[in-house]
Amino acid sequence: MPKEMSKEIRENLGFLEEGWGRLKMTAKTDNTQWETAIWFDTKLDTYLLPLKAEIRKKEKITTDKEIEIMIWI
Known about the structure:
Layout: H1 3-13, E1 22-29, E2 32-41, E3 46-48, H2 53-58, E4 70-72
Antiparallel strand pairs: 1-2, 1-4, 2-3
C-alpha cells in the first residue's frame, strides 16, 4: 500500500492492530469483495495486502496488471 496511506492508517487505527501488525479489513476490486487483513511491514514501513489465489483467478489478476482496490477498515 502507499506509504502515506499506511502512515495515516497506522496513526489513526493502529490501536486496532492484532498480533504481527495485522489489521482486519474488507477489500473490493471490480466485482469481488472479501474479508481480509493487511499486515504492517516494519522494513518497508507500509502495510501489505496479500491477494489470495482465489481472488487473483476470479479477477484475472497477473503480475503485469495494474488494479485498483478499495478498502474499508
